[in-house]
Amino acid sequence: MANFYKDNRDLKFQFNHPLMSKIVRLKEQDFKDSGNFDYAPCNFEDTVDSYDKVMEILGEICGETIASNAEEVDKHGPHHENGRVTYAPGTQKNQDTLTQAGLYGMSLPREFGGLNFSMVPYVMAAEIVARADAGFANIWGLQDCAETIHEFGSDEIKQEFLPRINLGETCSMDLTEPDAGSDLQAVMLRASYNETAGMWYLNGVKRFITNGDAQIKLVLARSEENTTDGRGLSYFVHDQAWGGVTVRRIENKLGIKGSPTCELVFNNAPAKIVGERRMGLIKYVMSLMNGARLGVGAQSVGISEAAYREALKYAHERAQFGKPIIQFPAVYEMLAVIKAKLQASRALLYETTRFVDLYKAYGFVGESRKLTPEERTESKLYQKQADMLTPMLKLMASEYSNQNAYDSLQIHGGSGFMKDYPIERLFRDARITTIYEGTSQLQVVAAQRYVTNGGYLALMREYEKIPLKAEHELLKKILIEMTLQYEKSVELLAGKDNDYIDFHARRLVEMASHIIMSYLLIIDSQTDDSFENSAQIFINKSRAWNNERYTYLKDFSPFQLSSFLAVKEERVPEA
Amino acid sequence: MTKKLKIVVLAKQVPDTRNVGKNAMKEDGTVNRAALPAIFNPEDMNALEQALRLKDSHPGSVVLLLTMGPARAAEIIREGYYRGADGGVLLTDRKFAGADTLATSYALAMALKKMQPDIIIAGRQAIDGDTAQVGPQVAEKLSLPQVTYAEDIVGFEKNRLVVKRRLERGVESVRTPLPVVITVHATAPECRPRNAKQLMRFKHARTLTEEQDNEHNSYLPLVSPESLRIPEWSVADVGGEESHYGLSGSPTKVKKIENIVFQAKESKRLTSSFEEIDMLMSELISSHTIG
Ligand SMILES: Cc1cc2nc3c(=O)[nH]c(=O)nc-3n(C[C@H](O)[C@H](O)[C@H](O)COP(=O)(O)OP(=O)(O)OC[C@H]3O[C@@H](n4cnc5c(N)ncnc54)[C@H](O)[C@@H]3O)c2cc1C
Description:
Chain A is built from 18 helices and eleven strands. Chain A is an alpha+beta fold. By secondary structure, chain B is α/β, with parallel strands linked by helices. Chain B has one domain: HUPs (Rossmann fold, 3-Layer(aba) Sandwich), CATH 3.40.50.620. Chain B is 27% helix and 23% strand. In chain B, the strands form three sheets. In chain B, strands 9-8-7-10-6-1-4-5-13 form a nine-stranded mixed sheet, with helices on both faces. The longest helix of chain B has 16 residues, at 42-57. Chain B is globular and about 75 Å long. The site of flavin-adenine dinucleotide has 20 residues of chain A, from strand 3, strand 5 and helix 13.
């Protein structure tokens, strides 16, 4: 039986990370539930054993059911009629199976019917589901919305909505509008309060909303009249049963075809406010987006994993010039680089996840007792690291999943271009990952401040302190040199104007990413030799990639910028 | 008013003969159990699903598993728990060893007498023997009606249970009084997945033997709560004639085992004329392929 957890030892490896025991202890708040819930763990080993066994359940469902349905779901897609959406039959089957398995509400507390899992197994589950069907991973992953309700909603709202998640009700996250994409401050959907009804009412249009016909919808809307910026926006929850929302159309897309992308019309749709007024965008959506970006990171890694496996299989099976094509340097180099990028992005995925886990857990502990000053400092540090690595992860993992899908398709030759192999679907599915939840360009905008404020550099220096085996000293030397080069590159920007800095921002963020992922791979190689090849490849490639960026930056003169600015004056010639 | 039912599912732990490698068979032609992963017999899984559906439609019902096997077959009971069953019994005793289908059904029937279920559901057959004899033999020994090849246990109609059977050329609906033995065919719906909470609840369920070995979940306290104890029944627990158990109760003797290698031979092309079909039929009859 295919099992997408058991067939991938790199996943279980994550449960052995030294920070895991701290994560579990905080998340389980010293195992306080063990007397009250018969499925709560009694100690660390018990918890991780449960993570492991639940991942096996999920791995089997993904391997046997979801992956087998993926092709049909891609072909069939969802159906739109009378303002409602029905899933493809395979999608519905996936949804029902995961509900029966109790795999919704994984991270929610037990009092709301959740499993109270930490983020590490939750994100792992997202990765595994995405490997099986990246489009379905969206529908499953939208349980993230429950996480924001839990974090910011009133007790009443929590009681009303959270217990429904484990029973299989799905969510949607309604932010984007025709005129508010990357720039969510421009959201116009109106929320007005009706004193007598004691309810908010929503009016307007949302666009590109994944799973837009969900039972539970989180909506960003303008609650403050005569405002135009982010501070006039609040955050609402709408229950499908209250009525007032119709699906005007669903999009016909390049990839993730099983995931319905909806245009929604809100016509006096009742809603309740989540958290405080005016904090919608600046606090809650930012938090939701960070969670969702972690989710897209996981989705990207899942797609990379699937693509790598397809390419590896094909490269062994296909023979040309009298031998399997994997024998040709051009092919085995591609494969080894795909694997290195896959493992590098996975290392970054779980490192980010651990930081998110720790600061979130501290947040919840802080609700029941006062944190000690040391705990508060630590919590702040983890939060900073999480904020820092999240855009980096989203940027790099999504770009790598595209590169990996591209190269894996290339290895298939002409067959890769045909509908006969899964790789063409993976290639199409990968494409969205650099776009939604903030495009790659917007991730650079978010990451940029940690280039300038020294955040990334400080993290590199932390990793530098970790002792390595003697045989890895050479690699360490390379990384230290790369760090110095990165530092110099940042200095080259000192005193330059914003346009100039923005122009080079991506180069610098990528340089930092290469170094940080390199460190993570070499650190993982200390406990597991199987990462060593990827560490070698990735570090040497990274050095070359960073040299290229450094050279470009060093020799760049403001004069060169004018050649770029010229394009702004161009127009498509009139016919 | 819906009935509260007591349902027992007969389930067997079998070597996974679906993914056989090179060393799947021993020199003497018997199955090399050590080389194959032990799994829940597939059609017993279909049987479990039928039982769980009855439980869903008849709240207050209980589903128990009954399995005969060595200590490690306790995994079958845990697997049942994970999917929604309420418990089960492991029939285990050296004296049960070496049982053929007759001795197996005797042992199961004796245990079932003790359990007193309303409905007994089994898979049609186990993949390590493919005999399809155990279910029917259990029914005979208990003098109960039997419905074989079930595809769907539809529900009650005036105190009679309606069952759809999968036949070679269609389906047949039959009505049966209780208690009854039903064997379920692979075309019945597949079993629901293991449930995460059920798993966490019952992963510590152990037999006394397992607890004493303590191989399992060694980080846990030595004694698990009584509610999580999987009962083990021996010959002494179920009574009956000792000579009917195990090897001594098994009249089946293996005379000879042959290795069969499937080979594709030359093919013949026929038109659809009556003469050619007639010729083919007489050829097949004379070669004893059919008839
Ligand atoms: C399949 C799919 C599913 C989606 N699901 C959801 C969902 O569930 N909920 C939801 O709310 N939204 C969803 N979206 C919307 C998605 O988040 C937006 O499409 C995305 O944020 C980009 O916005 P846009 O499409 O308006 O592009 P634009 O913002 O118009 O961007 C166009 C281009 O300009 C660049 N750009 C814009 N601003 C800047 C800047 N400041 N600096 C540098 N470059 C910039 C972008 O990088 C991009 O290359 C979905 C979109 C798709 C395609």
